[in-house]
Amino acid sequence: MSAKSAVPATVTWGLLAAWVLNDAEELATMARFSRAPQRRVNTAIGLMGCVVAAASVAGARTGGQSRFFRTAVTGFGLHGVTHLASAAALGRYTPGVATAPTVVIPYALWAARQMRAAGVPLTNGNAREAVLHGLGLAALTTATVHGVAWLATRRTASAAHQRGSGI
């Protein structure tokens, strides 16, 4: 393995760019697919964007060595696989499945190669642990942003309903 050097900025900021492309697809299709209000989808996607941006910043500041960044890249790539699995399981289009094989998974594989070339391997030698942490981060973050979005839009929707009903 070569000595550690900075991972190119295209890798660290590429996470955010790839996420934007994937989530633009989700933004356009998630509400209709999940029957969630568009405001809730917008809120959840915006919150997730903050997390992904923070991971990209952490990666850029540390030359890619941030564990948060590396875990986010792993989780992002694995989340692409879950898009494919959900579409296969349902036998139809699901939000995010178009950009999973064209953007998400290719970015994650490319980023892993670039990081390894810079001496900053994605897994630190323990692929199983990296997968578990990546899936854990993706699942926990997804559940959290959707929960917060539900709470935020529920209160707003409830207040609007009360104003409209004369309560």
Q: How would you describe the shape?
A: globular
Distance between termini? 68 Å
How many β-strand runs? 0
Count of DSSP-assigned helices = 5
What does the average pLDDT come to?
85
Reconstruct the topology from this structure.
Elements: H1 9-34, H2 38-61, H3 67-90, H4 100-117, H5 127-164
Helix pairs in contact: 1-2, 1-4, 2-3, 2-5, 3-4, 3-5
List its salient traits.
single chain; 167 residues; mainly alpha; 5 helices; globular
How does this model look, in words?
By secondary structure, the chain is mainly alpha-helical. It has one domain. It is 78% helix and 0% strand. It is built from five helices and no strands. The chain has helices spanning 9-34, 38-61, 67-90, 100-117, 127-164. It is globular and about 45 Å long. The mean pLDDT is 85.
Question: What is the gist of this entry?
Answer:
The protein has one domain (9-164). Helices cover 78% and strands 0% of the residues. It contains 5 helices and no strands.
